[in-house]
């Protein structure tokens, strides 16, 4: 196996205000960022967010490192340090909070509207979003790498080294559908398959400039698959069998592209009428037993949820008060 990663692996070194790019076992690019910028999300551009309040605003770059002029001020919500980030490239960015409230946070794509998805009992130093499985992966500080749902339910996990090592800059690589991470205070990267099998360990000369540390890491996330709007149960058809899954997604608050029928990057009451239109216009209600009673009953329920969803959607967000910066991580 050739030394990886074969895709460009972007890594943030916050204290040095650097963004590094590793490819094929070597540092191939780097440029200057603001002070203490760590969590990053990469889709069409690179957006890097502050570790904690009191430091530089976050910055957006093109993929070749040119600042776009867009900045991301700190948003009140997290009380601890955000070390790593990720994105679903459709609606949300994510960040792992190492101390303070110790939680997993969800943001809009412009790093606004922070919402804590769930608390963590063990400090978390890495996070990434897996587009293929539509789930999060998190790396515990000195513990497991876990695949989790948006409410924190652990779906699977593996021990990255059996030694209690600190593996940060967790990143899902779309090109290989594998996971990468960086070992703290070293030039070492590791790649695993999603069952936890170690695929390779790569030493990248000059990666870390001690006593400075790398914490954030991501590959570019690109959604290049065809989305069939309304096919919420993912069976390749849009019909009455999608009604119950649509209601489940609508009530859960979890984003799923197939349920975002009006394509506004959110699943809420505004999607109800477009979803009903898709179901009826496709004529797929004929594919389920007793279509008239089932679908009409479901449509009535959807309309009720839609009216409630409109009210929730329009209510102003409540933002907790700003907190003082926490002590820097070792």
Give your account of this protein's structure.
It is a single chain. The protein is mostly beta strands. The chain folds into two domains: 9-218, 6 Propeller (Neuraminidase); 240-314, no CATH class. The chain is built from three helices and 20 strands. The chain has a four-stranded antiparallel sheet with strand order 3-2-1-20, with no helix packed on it. A four-stranded antiparallel sheet has the order 4-5-6-7, with no helix packed on it. Strands 8-9-10-11 form a four-stranded antiparallel sheet, with no helix packed on it. Strand 1 (9-13) and strand 2 (18-23) form a beta hairpin. Helix 1 (243-252) runs parallel beside helix 3 (291-314). The model is unreliable at 283-295 and 306-328 (pLDDT under 50).
Mean pLDDT: 83
User: What's the total number of strands?
Assistant: 20
Distance between the termini: 34 Å
Helix/strand order: EEEEEEEEEEEEEEEEEEEEHHH
Number of helices: 3
Broad shape: globular
At the fold tier of CATH, the topology name of the largest domain is Neuraminidase
The total tally of domains equals 2
- What is the H level of CATH, i.e. the homologous superfamily of the largest domain? TolB, C-terminal domain
Strand content: 25-35%
């Amino acid at each position: 196996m050739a030394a990886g990663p074969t895709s460009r692996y972007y890594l943030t070194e916050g204290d040095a205000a650097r963004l590094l790019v590793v490819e094929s076992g070597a540092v191939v690019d780097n440029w200057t960022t603001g002070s203490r910028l760590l969590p990053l999300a990469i889709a069409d551009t690179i957006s890097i967010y502050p570790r904690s309040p009191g430091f530089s605003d976050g910055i957006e770059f093109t993929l070749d490192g040119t600042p776009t002029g867009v900045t991301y001020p700190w948003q009140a919500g997290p009380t601890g340090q955000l070390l790593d980030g990720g994105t679903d490239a459709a609606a949300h960015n994510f960040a792992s909070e190492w101390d303070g409230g110790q939680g997993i946070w969800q943001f809009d794509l412009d790093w606004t509207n922070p919402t804590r998805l769930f608390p963590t009992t063990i400090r978390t130093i890495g996070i990434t979003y897996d587009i293929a499985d539509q789930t999060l992966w998190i790396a515990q500080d000195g513990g497991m790498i876990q695949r989790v749902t948006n409410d924190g339910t652990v779906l699977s996990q593996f021990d990255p080294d059996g030694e209690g090592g600190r593996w940060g800059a967790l990143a899902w690589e779309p090109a290989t559908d594998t996971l990468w991470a960086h070992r703290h205070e070293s030039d070492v990267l590791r790649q695993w398959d999603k069952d936890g099998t170690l695929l390779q360990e790569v030493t990248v000369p000059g990666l870390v400039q001690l006593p400075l540390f790398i914490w954030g890491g991501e590959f570019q996330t690109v959604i290049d698959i065809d989305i069939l709007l309304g096919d919420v149960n993912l069976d390749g058809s849009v019909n009455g069998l999608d009604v119950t899954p649509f209601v489940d997604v609508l009530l859960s608050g979890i984003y799923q592209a197939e349920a975002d029928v009006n394509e506004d990057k959110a699943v809420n009451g505004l999607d109800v009428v477009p979803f009903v239109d898709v179901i009826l216009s496709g004529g797929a209600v004929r594919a389920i037993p007793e279509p008239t009673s089932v679908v009409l009953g479901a449509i009535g329920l959807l309309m009720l949820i839609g009216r409630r969803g409109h009210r929730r959607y329009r209510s102003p967000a409540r933002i907790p008060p700003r907190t003082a910066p926490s002590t820097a991580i070792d």
